[in-house]
Amino acid sequence: MSRQEKAHEDNEAAALWQRKMSLLQNESDPKKLLRRMNEAEDAIFTRLQQLDGQRTSEHNAIEAACRLIRKFQVTRLAFPAWAGEAYAALDLASFSATDRSLVPESVFDTTADMPDVSKS
């Protein structure tokens, strides 16, 4: 595989988990929310395997996405919170511009309307 093909493959793999996160963030149907969450987690897991232990700036964005998934689990799907979790203070603003460029901007929008589907 050429260097150009490898770079294209890496870009596609990075874009996949980002698209899945965007779909999750924008999902309003409670019946689809868990499926979207699982798809995002699967895409992130696959991407981390592809990175094969290489620490890149993409890792920071993936970590932010994982925190957001966990926040959704607790706030939108009524998963139990772990000791010490405080999502009201979730600080995504501290991510660098490079990290932010790797994740859809909607991931950093903590003011987005997130319907409470735990009561559905």
Present the secondary structure layout.
Elements: H1 3-26, H2 30-51, H3 57-77, H4 97-101
Helix pairs in contact: 1-2, 2-3
Q: What class do helices, strands and sheet pairing give?
A: mainly alpha
- The SSE order reads HHHH
Cα Rg: 15 Å
Terminus-to-terminus distance: 49 Å
Runs in which pLDDT lies below 50 for 5 or more consecutive residues are 88-92, 110-120
What is the typical, i.e. mean, pLDDT?
A: 76
Task: Give structural notes.
- This protein is mainly alpha-helical and 120 residues long.
- It has one domain (3-119).
- It is built from four helices and no strands.
- Helix 1 (3-26) packs antiparallel against helix 2 (30-51) and helix 2 runs antiparallel to helix 3 (57-77).
- The radius of gyration is 15 Å and the shape is globular.
- The N and C termini lie far apart (49 Å).
Key terms:
4 helices, mainly alpha, globular, about 120 residues
Summarize the structure.
The protein is mainly α and 120 residues long.
